[in-house]
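User: tokens in, sequence out, please.
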């Protein structure tokens, strides 16, 4: 009775819990910690969406059980979004299912389609649920490069030739959490052709589709002819409309995958609270000025962060999309690894970031910085980091970090 349960044994310690513990202790002592760790939007949900929630919740009929696959009006609204944004026509009855956030949808679809011992291809680093959803379901994960280029395509070819059993599914996520990389239609065209040729399912995580900072709009994999033969795509209301706590997302695409997800959900939940779904419908069908304002807000924060860190001597690539900067650890601190460097930033600069190791072992040379504080607080964070880096404190005398295998989130 003392042994851990089988599925729990396959889940490593939650690496960010260590940073959270330090953060809570510091705040308990009265320290002002600037939290750029979790990707938790700090803005309020737009007023017209909140108003629709209040209106809907005042109708007692909405207080009953909802529908596990989502109300038809919301599924139609998601299909309308795909038609406007990507010129993709979806059947709201057979090609769309509403999820309790994209994270729940990814995990439940993994459970629906996975047999013990299946091989799944997942970029490393990547958002933890991309691999651990399948690990919980009993699969084995094979890591592939995280860049949307020839390197990933060559790795996919090797994986098909050398994996036993042959891979059954592939995860892609662009704009990426945590790396902020974007993919283009040429890349999607290549992986769709690859997946069709080798009969591999594709699960595309497009949760950050509307957070981009130039003219390069992130495309949908469903824009590629034939993609719906093999692909399903997950989107979310969380970041686009600052609705993270509302827990509304979608899966759209291949009818067989959508049906499998809807079937397993029918045993697990009755869908989101109906007024939340009604409000989400209003968000998708209503004015989109709030989305442009959100992009402008994150771009301004990005520019303040990247420019300030560069002046501080920390050269961090400017992300083209997402709400994150994927920051290589400064060379003087690289020997520490991402967890120890994150602890050092928290202790010395009073800034919390996410250790890259939490997104896979190949993320250990980076930390993820979330743009979830206002510009004033970001400038304060940059000043604190500059003072710490210029002091050189603990750069050379701290021991190298031990190997860590762990998962982060948010």
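Assistant: Sequence out:
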């Amino acid at each position: 009775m003392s042994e851990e349960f089988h599925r729990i044994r396959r889940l490593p310690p939650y690496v960010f819990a260590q940073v959270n513990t330090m953060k809570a202790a510091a705040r308990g002592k009265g320290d002002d910690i600037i939290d750029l760790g979790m990707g938790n939007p700090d803005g309020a949900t737009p007023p017209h969406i909140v108003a629709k929630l209040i209106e809907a919740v005042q109708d007692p009929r909405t207080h009953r059980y909802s529908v596990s696959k989502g109300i038809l009006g919301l599924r139609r609204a998601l299909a309308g979004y795909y038609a406007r944004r990507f010129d993709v026509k979806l059947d709201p009855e057979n090609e769309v299912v509403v999820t309790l956030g994209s994270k729940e949808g990814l995990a439940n679809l993994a459970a629906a389609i996975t047999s013990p011992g299946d091989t799944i291809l997942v970029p490393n680093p990547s958002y933890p649920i991309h691999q651990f959803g399948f690990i919980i379901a009993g699969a084995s994960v094979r890591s592939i490069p995280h860049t949307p280029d020839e390197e990933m395509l060559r790795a996919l070819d090797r994986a098909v030739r050398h994996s036993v059993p042959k891979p059954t599914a592939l995860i892609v996520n662009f704009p990426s959490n945590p790396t902020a990389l974007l993919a283009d239609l040429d890349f999607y065209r290549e992986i769709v052709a690859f997946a069709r040729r080798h009969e591999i399912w594709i699960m595309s995580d497009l949760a950050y589709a509307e957070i981009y900072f130039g003219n390069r709009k992130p495309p949908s994999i469903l824009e590629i002819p034939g993609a719906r033969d093999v692909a399903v795509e997950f989107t979310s209301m969380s970041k686009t409309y600052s609705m993270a706590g509302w827990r509304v997302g979608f899966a759209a695409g291949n009818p067989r995958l959508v049906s499998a997800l809807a079937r397993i959900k029918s045993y697990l939940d009755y869908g989101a609270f109906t007024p939340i779904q009604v409000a989400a419908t209003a968000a998708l069908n209503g004015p989109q000025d709030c989305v442009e304002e959100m992009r402008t807000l994150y771009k301004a924060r990005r520019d303040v962060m990247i420019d300030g860190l560069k002046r501080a001597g920390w050269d961090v690539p400017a992300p083209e999309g997402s709400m994150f900067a994927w920051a290589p650890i400064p060379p003087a601190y690289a020997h520490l690894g991402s967890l120890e460097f994150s602890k050092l930033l928290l202790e010395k600069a009073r800034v919390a970031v996410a250790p890259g190791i939490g997104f896979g072992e190949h993320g250990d040379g980076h930390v993820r910085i979330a743009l979830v504080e206002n510009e004033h607080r970001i400038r304060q964070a940059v000043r604190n980091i500059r003072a710490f880096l210029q002091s050189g404190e603990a750069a050379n005398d701290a021991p190298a970090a031990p190997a860590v295998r762990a998962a982060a989130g948010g």
